[in-house]
Design goal:
It is built from seven helices and four strands; from the N terminus they run αβαααββαβαα. The protein has helices at 2-42, 66-86, 90-104, 110-115, 137-158, 180-202, 205-217, and strands spanning 46-57, 117-121, 127-134, 163-176. The protein has a four-stranded antiparallel sheet with strand order 2-3-1-4. Helix 3 crosses helix 5. The protein is elongated and about 80 Å long. The chain starts with a helix and ends with a helix.
């Protein structure tokens, strides 16, 4: 019973604290979100994402049974999953770097270049999307096309019967900084105001203010 009473007192005390200081926490939240939005807009670099889709498939022959065709599709999915990992491999990144240096006069540290790329396999297992994110619009375009051509050549070298189509996804996806900064700024704003409220609540500032007002009245 005593434990239950102590728990109820604990929660009622916290609810009373929130009721007294909700406006201060709200100011911290709004201020933090506004600060994070400004930091994301003006304090972070604009980055561009260019994408290329590689569609990979075998043609179904007339003599192939449905079961054999399904098995072939599973094999294609495994192949694409493998090449999705290859996008980040050292040999592939080095090949992209060499090509960018040769054709465009660009040379980037392999670690930094590898962080610019990501890839994903479509649900149907027939297409591999490669993305390149960079603060340079031109570099994101050159990089993703270079990577796609190298992956296409590797797929064809591994299986000459594989059909690989190269489709550039038009336009750029522009990202203004990291969106996570808004969330974390809001959390920090609430935390700071919570500390301020706790300082007023338990630091004796309220009591001192009341004592000072009482002495004035006397």
């Amino acid at each position: 019973m005593n434990k239950l009473k102590s728990k109820l007192f604990f929660f009622s005390d916290r609810i009373a604290f929130l009721r007294r200081w909700w406006w201060l926490l709200a100011i911290g939240l709004v201020g933090g979100l506004l600060f994070g939005s400004g930091l994301r807009q003006f304090g972070s670099k604009t980055v561009y994402k260019s994408s290329v889709a590689l569609q990979v498939y075998h043609l179904k022959s007339k003599s192939m049974s449905k079961q054999a065709y399904i098995k072939q599709k599973k094999s294609e999915l495994n192949d694409l999953s493998k090449y999705s990992v290859v996008v980040k491999s050292y040999d592939t990144i080095q090949a992209v770097n060499d090509s960018l240096h040769y054709y465009y006069g660009v040379w980037i540290n392999n670690v930094d270049l590898g962080q610019m790329f990501d890839s994903s396999v479509a649900v149907d297992g027939q297409s591999l999307t490669i993305n390149c994110i960079s603060s340079s619009k031109e570099l994101s375009r050159y990089g993703v096309r270079t990577m796609a051509r190298i992956i296409k050549m590797r797929i064809k070298d591994a299986d000459e019967s594989m059909n690989v189509s190269f489709r550039i996804i038009p336009g750029y996806s522009v990202q203004y900084g990291n969106t996570d900064v808004i969330f974390y700024s809001g959390v920090v704003g609430v935390f700071i105001m919570c500390m301020v409220a706790l300082g007023i609540e338990f630091g004796g500032l309220n009591e001192q203010h009341d004592d000072h007002s009482e002495s004035k009245r006397n």
